[in-house]
Amino acid sequence: MYFCYMKLLKQLVNFYINSSIHVALSVISLTYITVLDYDISIDFAMLMFVLFSSITGYNFVKFYGLAKFHHRSLANWLKTIQVFSFFCFLLMCYYALQLSVRTLLYIAGFALVTFLYAIPFLPKRFFLDSKHNLRSIGGLKVYVIALVWTGVTVFLPLVDVDFSINSDVILTGVQRFIYIVVLMLPFEIRDLRYDSLKLSTIPQKIGVRRTKQVGGILLIVFFLLEFFKSEINLCQTLVMFAVALITLLLVVFSKTEQGKYYSGFWVEGLPIFWLLFLLACC
Predict the structure, then answer these.
(1) Which of 32, 81, 238, 258 is most buried as measured by Cβ atoms within 10 A of its Cβ?
(2) C-alpha of 212 from chain center
(3) Distance, C-alpha 219 to centroid of its chain
């Protein structure tokens, strides 16, 4: 009986990660951190839109090729994720109808980037392989993801309430971009054995050791930028320091042969822990 429960628990955890629920909760956590940082009103429809659009977008990017070429022989787990993603898409549309036109126009830009990230759209000479999408352009993947996450988690909640984009907001955007790039490093180290050399990922270009050093430098910059803001909250700054330190440890101890959940759960879940720290301590 014990082994049956453990097997069921493992299947649930795998579904939780593979269906992009975990990464979507990380996105919504960073969005909520912005809400707390700038003490703005919580728009439930906007938060739910971010949650369901993240699940829909990530699953579309991850499984578009698999569904396209293997739709007749899809594994049961992929079929389940497809059905789950479809209902998330419907919920995304439902909450989108509750957003302002201004917010929807802003979202449209990032939706286009996500679409182009997975779908072929330019001539072959621009790409490294036959996929012809943004994802296959050498060295671009990390920065596209960081750009989209920053736009959604920093600027979207502020645009939604018509908050003035001042210098503090710009610094938060830079911090968030840097932090997402650092979060991607353990994934790039993990995938070093499988990625084509043509992808020109950061570890491929400078090696694993120097990638970790770059991650450490970026985290220092990420934290120090907080002191250039016109308003500094001591509690939030201390939490940010703790988060930066934990992130640094996970980057330093990342390796090509990682445990199954090292990056996919622990690293990707850092924004969730960041939000929990804020709610508990501040």
Answers:
(1) 81
(2) 19
(3) 17
**Tens digit of each residue's pLDDT (9 = 90 or more) over 46-75:** 999 999 999 998 888 776 554 444 444 456
What is the pTM assigned to this prediction? 0.87
The gap from C-alpha 9 to its chain's centroid, in whole angstroms, comes to 25
Give domain limits for the chain. Answer: 21-281
Q: Which amino acid, residue 169?
A: V
Rounded CA gap, 17 and 22, in Å?
A: 5
One-letter amino acid at 274 equals W
Contacts 24+ apart (CB under 8 A), 239-248: 239/274, 239/277, 239/278, 239/281, 239/282, 240/274, 242/277, 243/270, 243/273, 243/274, 243/277, 244/219, 246/270, 246/273, 247/179, 247/182, 247/183, 247/219, 248/215, 248/216, 248/219
Give which of 89, 74, 84 is closest to 12, Cα–Cα. 84
